[in-house]
Known about the structure:
Blueprint: E1 5-9, H1 16-32, E2 37-41, H2 47-54, E3 59-63, H3 80-86, E4 90-93, H4 96-102, H5 106-118, E5 122-127, H6 131-135, H7 139-150, H8 156-159, E6 163-166, H9 180-198, H10 200-205, E7 207-211, H11 219-223, E8 230-233, H12 240-247
Parallel strand pairs: 1-2, 1-8, 2-3, 3-4, 4-5, 5-6, 6-7, 7-8
Bound molecules: phosphoenolpyruvate (PEP).
Residues 9, 167, 172-173, 211-214, 232-236 line the site of phosphoenolpyruvate.
Amino acid sequence: MRKPVIAGNWKMYKTIEETVDFVERIKPVAAQASHCEVIVAPPFTALAAAAAAARGSKVLVSAQNCHWDKEGAHTGEVSTLMLRNAGCTHVIIGHSERRQEWGETDEQVNKKVKAALAAGLTPIVCVGETLAQREIGETEENLERQFVGGLAGLTPVDFSRIIIAYEPVWAIGTGRTATPEMAAEAHHFLRGLAGRQFGEREAQGIRILYGGSVKPDNVGALMAQEEIDGALVGGASLKVDSFTALVNYPRG
Ligand code: PEP
């Protein structure tokens, strides 16, 4: 019922040439992967080239951030309409690196989610606790705050068009993965919030990806969890071989 998603977040890696080469090589992999959706998120400079290379294939292209205004005097920013124009179908919003390095707030995440939906993009909305929050038992409180704040004002129909990524901050780029059970527990909690805020049907339909040091050797155990609907992957998405192994994760 919920089609899994394997998404690669390339962060500030890859030139245009490297991006096109990667997309060309991953196209046949995606063509064979009828069990999941395959998304790559290159940096802004390579989005149009990625989308052109991916055209007609099953590789989908996501941006890593957006601004909420259609246009304006916002030096260095890119709007959701511009991302659509470049050929994107998705946009990652509220990644912990943006929250931590750029002070992105739940209110800004909310404006970006609404702008992405208005432009016809699928927002991949990231939530996740820090190590300190987990250690003092505030994981759920933090997830709830980010969920409620980031998705405020969405209708159930809007909600059914988004993807959520649960990314514990302490697991991102650290090699330290949440156990499949820990991740599933957080996903279950988020699905419960979804049920209360948007309705049970929407909660059952929403795809919740796990992110945080997902690698070819742990993706199978994570994906075996009923609650985990895919992976948002940083480091291991940068090489064609490991991204291929992630897309072809072990299945039942
Ligand atoms: C990420 O960037 O969203 C991420 C999960 O990174 P990594 O897989 O490298 O931990």
